[in-house]
Design a protein that fits this description.
The complex is a heterodimer of chains A (368) and B (209).
Chain A: H1 2-18, H2 24-30, H3 32-45, H4 49-64, H5 71-77, H6 92-108, H7 112-125, H8 139-151, H9 157-166, E1 181-187, E2 192-196, E3 202-206, E4 214-219, E5 224-233, H10 234-239, H11 245-276, H12 280-302, E6 318-324, E7 329-338, E8 344-354, E9 360-365
Parallel strand pairs in A: 1-9
Antiparallel strand pairs in A: 1-6, 2-3, 4-5, 4-7, 5-6, 7-8
Chain B: H1 2-21, H2 53-68, H3 71-74, E1 81-84, E2 88-90, H4 98-111, E3 117-118, H5 124-135, E4 155-168, E5 171-184, E6 190-202
Helix pairs in contact in B: 2-4
Classes of the chains: A alpha+beta (368), B alpha/beta (209).
Chain lengths: 368, 209
């Protein structure tokens, strides 16, 4: 009979713990979108815009579909699977950036309406139907939405007002419809995720940092100058998005883990005491309690409330923008990233051709 | 034996719970999903709330039928020439806009029995180059290349996609209004306009909300 017990316990342990890990290939498949995000950011900074488009388009296909029925998400909600087993889509600030980058690329390709579509989808990612406090409060998403509309002879005033209303770092300038050179700048290192709480069940963000706080743009040796201030701060966006449904699920998992652990302790101690108290029946019941306690401990240890800390780790911290006018032809441009004291921290030189009838989009980052 | 049964029962119940709650294979579709041929006008198992092939088919079919019923097309003297202008996308979904006009054009060409003819304005650089080569004598020509034969448009066909998105705790809802117009190239009169509207909604898995 003893063998039967041992066998039963072994089955329980194996069933809970043995199949908990994924193979590297399986995990890579679930991290596919995350890797595409990273590749896109790298490609953008290396001016490999065609590559960035390809990976972003694929990532946004996953992001744009409704996730209902996603089996990996169902797994992530179960007590015995980590949240990180779900297919990665990212937190709202990460999803926003995927659409933001794609919007820039659409504008670069002369499709401001599709760029606007991306900025609108990005704003939807930031919508917070739970608390409404900080929802859709990216300045650039609204500002660029309105700018694209204005350039296409639409009405961008509502979007501009929204951008003005949520501006914290700098007030966006009125639209210059004649501006045909759009300079997108990004600065610093973005926020990072970490898990906290007794069982690492709470997802938190440590803010990113940036030496530069704005960029000065000088065109054709000083013929045209502009400032590209930072309008949006991804660290602020990461920490102000509000709660996730997953936070409640992870909190429940943590409670379950704690409860089964305490129950296991109680059953082991009381079972042990009962077994030692003498009497055949008491010994048997005590032994039963100890086994139940052991199983409860196993269940507790197999419960995985850890928050998913996979992150898009090459995001910038600050997003800036400037719009300039340039006649058709070849131009040179110097972008200097500057700190709050006005000192240049990094200098980028580039050349471009302004084309009649469409905008020229420049993307500059202070990261490689 | 009864005592052993008692012990066995006291452990079997929690173990059964543990087994039921435990994990399964952890792999989705381990053998993959074979290619499934779908009709373009039916919704597949991969779906979002954006513009999809079944919307494209439904909208362009309706527009092609509708534009052929326009009196200016039905009663036109000669065959009217139509130029396609880009569709404007005002939704939150980035799409290949040309695909709408491409399908309307192909529907009108295949089912319109020659009632309208489209001008290939998107091929103008190649057309102009060909004409110049003929004029310079570098290429043969079946007619006098110096005579202006590139035709002007009688009508412009264009459209707009407008969207309205709602996101609440209950899910995401996207409404898209597709409007298409036939504009008289001479007078700017809007001779025909029709619309189609599609609304979709869905709820994300809680793991992503």
């Amino acid at each position: 009979m003893k063998f039967r017990w041992i066998f039963a316990c072994a089955v329980a342990v194996l069933s809970l713990v043995g199949c908990a890990s994924l193979s590297p290939e399986e995990q890579a498949a679930r991290d596919r979108v995350l890797n595409q995000y990273r590749q896109a950011a790298t490609a953008m900074r290396q001016a490999r815009f065609t590559d960035a488009k390809a990976v972003l388009d694929d990532a946004l296909l996953s992001l744009g579909g409704i996730s209902a029925g996603d089996k990996t998400a169902k797994e992530a909600r179960s007590y015995f699977r980590e949240e990180s087993r779900k297919n990665f889509r990212g937190e709202p600030y990460e999803r926003v950036m995927a659409y933001y980058y794609r919007g820039i690329l659409y504008w670069m390709d002369g499709e401001p309406d599709n760029a606007r579509a991306c900025f609108r989808s990005a704003a939807i990612q930031d919508a917070d139907p739970e608390q409404h406090t900080y929802e859709s409060d990216y300045v650039l998403l609204d500002y660029l939405d309105g700018f694209a509309s204005t350039k296409m002879r639409g009405d961008g005033t509502d979007a501009f007002k929204r951008a003005q209303k949520v501006a914290r770092l700098a007030q966006p300038p009125p639209y210059d419809v004649s501006a045909n050179v759009l300079v997108f700048v990004e600065m610093g290192r973005g926020p990072e995720k970490y898990a906290a709480g007794e069982y690492r069940e709470q997802l938190h963000f440590s803010p990113g940092s940036s030496v530069a706080t704005y960029a000065s743009v000088v065109m054709d040796g000083g013929m045209v100058t502009a400032t590209a201030p930072a309008f949006d701060d991804l660290s602020y966006q990461a920490v102000t998005r509000g709660g996730r449904q997953m936070d409640y699920i992870l909190a429940n998992k943590a409670v379950f883990k704690g409860t089964t652990d305490v129950l296991g302790d109680a059953a082991l101690i009381s079972g042990g005491a009962l077994a030692l108290s003498g009497g055949d029946r008491a010994t048997e019941v005590g032994a039963g309690l100890m086994v139940a306690g052991l199983i409860s401990k196993i269940v507790s240890s197999a419960t995985t409330p850890e928050a998913d800390t996979r992150m898009w780790d090459n995001l910038p911290n600050l997003l800036g923008f400037a719009a300039l006018r340039a006649p058709p032809g070849h131009h040179s441009m110097v972008v200097e990233f500057r700190n709050a004291g006005g000192q240049a921290t990094l200098r980028r030189e580039l050349a471009f051709d302004a084309v009649e009838g469409r905008d020229t989009v420049i993307f500059v980052s202070d990261r490689n | 034996m009864k005592r052993l049964s008692l012990v066995w029962t006291s452990t079997a119940l929690p173990m059964a719970v543990a087994l039921i709650a435990g994990c399964s294979s952890g792999v989705n579709n381990p053998s993959g999903v074979p290619v499934t041929v779908m009709k373009a006008d039916e919704q597949g198992f991969v779906a979002g709330t954006g513009v999809e092939s079944q919307d494209l088919v439904a909208v362009t079919d309706k527009m092609a039928r509708s534009v052929l019923k326009t009196p200016e097309i039905q009663n036109a003297q000669g065959v009217p020439r139509v130029v396609l202008l880009p569709v404007e996308n005002q939704t939150r979904f980035a799409i290949n806009k040309d695909i709408f006009l491409d399908r309307i054009r192909s529907q009108l060409n295949s089912k319109g029995q020659g009632k309208v003819r489209f001008l290939a304005r998107d091929r103008m650089p190649a057309l102009e180059q060909e004409r110049e080569l003929k004029r310079s004598g570098q290429l043969t020509s079946s007619s006098d290349p110096n005579v202006q034969e590139l035709k002007g448009a009688d009508f412009f066909l264009t459209g707009k996609l407008s969207g309205l998105t709602t996101k609440t705790k209950a899910g995401v809802s996207d409404y898209i209004l597709y409007t298409f117009q036939l504009v008289d190239a001479r007078t700017s009169d809007i001779l025909w306009e029709d619309s189609a509207e599609i609304k979709k909604q869905g709820v994300e898995d809680a793991a992503y909300r």
